Amino acid sequence: MNTTVNTNSPLDTLDLASYGPVIPVIVIHDLAHAVPLARALVAGGVRVLEVTLRTPVALQAMQAMAAEVPEAIVGAGTLRTPADVQAASAAGCRFGVSPGYTSSLGRACSDAGLPLLPGVATASEVMAACDEGLRFLKFFPASAAGGVPLLKALAGPFPDVVFCPTGGITPQNAPEFLALPQVKVVGGSWLSPASMMEAGDWQGITRLARAASALARA
Ligand code: 3PG
């Protein structure tokens, strides 16, 4: 776990990769799960948490995690519009993740001072994000878009870009992605299964987080 980054200073998105090899993609349906989940993940060494803006309680969940679990670095996932960016910022999020990239989303993040990890799946999308000065990109949906072979192909023309593959990543295939030099971190929902949250199995989630933290990187 990185201990040198000041968690109160503005983040460069690439800092997010320095905390560990996996960023959990979290869907919260029950607000009561938010804080225990964040504590369980942090206890397993996972501090960077992406909470998706996909449920009615998502913003309140981000707010609660950011306020009550200071070791957690809480970000908002599924950002699609400038309004999403403003809401995530107001909820105390430290970074944003989007499934794709639009210039209005980029402008909104820059106006809000919210570092953005935008999704790309093609060479043209990588070029568009690079034009905006972004060099750390989410590769989404990683498995469906072409997985490791596509990432290897993109490494040729884009040696200066770092990717966070997300979408279809599992504990079984994560090592293949993390073995690529241009991958420093992967995203995935397997650290916060709905069934374990509903059962209150926070120790089980800490075990999943600990195993994810131990995954090797190139
Ligand atoms: C998502 O959009 O939900 C993320 O990409 C996570 O996908 P996963 O459930 O395949 O990890």
CATH class identity: Alpha Beta
Q: Share of helix among residues?
A: 25-40%
Q: Shape, please? A: globular
Classify the oligomer. Answer: single chain
Structural features:
218 residues; alpha/beta; 39% helix; disordered N terminus; binds 3-phosphoglyceric acid; globular; single chain
Structural overview:
- The protein has 10 helices and 8 strands.
- With 218 residues, it is of the alpha/beta class.
- The protein has one domain (19-213): TIM Barrel (Alpha-Beta Barrel).
- The protein has an 8-stranded parallel β-sheet with strand order 7-6-5-4-3-2-1-8.
- Helix 1 (34-43) crosses helix 2 (58-68), helix 1 crosses helix 10 and helix 3 (82-90) packs parallel to helix 4.
- The longest helix is centred in the C-terminal third of the chain and has 12 residues, at 202-213.
- The chain is globular, with a radius of gyration of 16 Å.
- It binds 3-phosphoglyceric acid.
- 3-phosphoglyceric acid (3PG) binds next to loops.
Draw up the topology in text:
Blueprint: E1 22-26, H1 34-43, E2 48-52, H2 58-68, E3 73-77, H3 82-90, E4 95-98, H4 103-112, E5 116-120, H5 123-131, E6 136-139, H6 142-145, H7 147-155, E7 162-165, H8 174-178, E8 186-188, H9 194-198, H10 202-213
Parallel strand pairs: 1-2, 1-8, 2-3, 3-4, 4-5, 5-6, 6-7
Helix pairs in contact: 1-2, 1-10, 3-4
